[in-house]
Design a protein that fits this description.
- This protein is α+β, with helices and mostly antiparallel strands.
- The chain has three domains: 1-30; 34-289, CorA soluble domain-like (Beta Polymerase, domain 2, 2-Layer Sandwich), CATH 3.30.460.20; 298-354, Magnesium transport protein CorA, transmembrane region (Methane Monooxygenase Hydroxylase, Chain G, domain 1), CATH 1.20.58.340.
- The chain has ten helices and seven strands.
- The protein has a seven-stranded mixed beta sheet, sandwiched between helices.
- Helix 8 runs antiparallel to helix 9 (255-317) and helix 9 (255-317) packs antiparallel against helix 10.
- It is rod-shaped, with a radius of gyration of 36 Å.
């Protein structure tokens, strides 16, 4: 009895250890999910770029007399993000917006900072768009950016910051926000251009020889446009709120740059509407082309059937086994019937050509 109880306790202990290890694995990010934090602190005279130190050291390096850009790659470690949020006194609801990767683009103006969240898509490989959620927090002499994945399209901006004569180093963090958002919006154009090339290629294939694969590509592109519209349409309002600048987070001489981004977003929306209509037209073109080819096949089969109906009728009559059929005793009857059938065939072909049926 005691041995049975001991065995049960041992089994229970093993189960408890396994569940505890699984719980810790779910709570703690794996090595692949570790967040990458990068600090770029700069002014007109110097630049400090650091990304290998612990987050506490990076936060301690932030100098309020300089412009500080903290970029975070990865949203899996909530504790680390909360630590950054505590440093800059961010509201806990703002943290939820940062971590919610399904959030629609929007702008919030709070007492001490401006919050902007949007989508970034920057690669178009093998007919696949890579989407990424990104959030910005703009405050006095600092800009925080939180990206869903590692890698971005900001390498050119980092290079310009590192240059001694770079304009970014002479402006405030609001201008840096403009350059980052402008780079993202520009990437929308490159993605849209790639999709446009696909649309043109599919349209050419459909006009020549439509296939089921072309139909599937059209459906896939339509889904991409639906998602792009969901991303770009709310961004219009988000950028417009920044342009209005009711809370004064954007310097007056930088407002025109965000107004330029707003114009680009409007143009993107018009382009998306145009491509959406084009994909609908392509669907109609595909269906019409398929129906036309089907009609051509049916017309050919109808012509063949029509030609062979009288020939089958003649062959059917003389295929009957009645004893008293006068033509059966005709010496040249076989060749005569073939001649009649051939004549009927030629006359029907001539008639169909006259009617322009083929």
């Amino acid at each position: 009895m005691e041995s049975i109880k001991g065995g049960r306790k041992a089994a229970l202990h093993k189960v408890t250890e396994r569940l505890t290890s699984e719980f810790r694995a779910n709570q703690e990010p794996s090595a692949d999910d570790k967040i990458i934090v990068e600090l770029i602190s700069f002014n007109e005279d110097s630049v400090v770029m650091e990304g290998k130190k612990p987050v506490d050291d990076l936060l301690a390096m932030c100098d309020h007399n300089r412009k500080n850009w903290i970029n975070v790659d990865g949203l899996t470690d909530r504790n680390l993000i909360e630590k950054i949020a505590k440093k800059f006194d961010l509201h806990y609801l703002l943290i939820e917006d940062i971590l919610n990767v399904d959030h629609q683009p929007k702008t919030d103006e709070l007492d001490d900072h401006l919050f902007l969240t949007m989508k970034m898509f920057y690669r178009f490989d093998e007919e696949k768009i890579e989407y990424e959620h990104i959030s910005f927090v703009l405050g006095k002499n600092y800009l925080l950016s939180f990206q869903e994945k590692e890698g971005d399209i900001f390498s050119g901006i980092r290079t310009r910051i590192n240059q001694e004569n770079g304009v970014i180093r002479k402006r405030g963090t609001d201008y840096l926000l403009y350059r980052l958002v402008d780079a993202i919006v520009d990437s929308y154009y490159s993605v849209l251009e790639k999709i446009g090339e696909q649309v043109e290629s599919i349209e050419e294939n459909i006009s020549k020889n439509p296939t089921v694969k072309d139909f599937q590509k059209i459906q896939k592109i339509r889904k991409e446009f639906i998602y792009l519209r969901r991303v770009v349409y709310p961004l219009r309002e988000a950028i417009n709120k920044i342009v209005k600048n009711e809370s004064g987070f954007i310097e007056e001489n930088n407002e025109k740059y965000f107004a330029d981004i707003y114009d680009h977003v409007i143009h993107l929306i018009d382009s998306l509407d145009t491509y959406k209509d084009l994909t609908s037209t392509m669907m109609d073109l595909y269906m019409n082309t398929i129906n036309y080819k089907m009609n051509e096949v049916m017309k050919l089969l109808t012509i063949i059937t029509t030609i062979f109906i009288p020939l089958s009728f003649i062959a059917g009559i003389y295929g009957m086994n009645f004893q008293h059929m006068p033509e059966l005793g005709w010496e040249n009857g076989y060749f005569g019937v073939l001649a009649i059938m051939g004549t009927i065939f030629v006359l029907m072909i001539v008639y169909f050509r006259y009617k322009k049926w083929f």
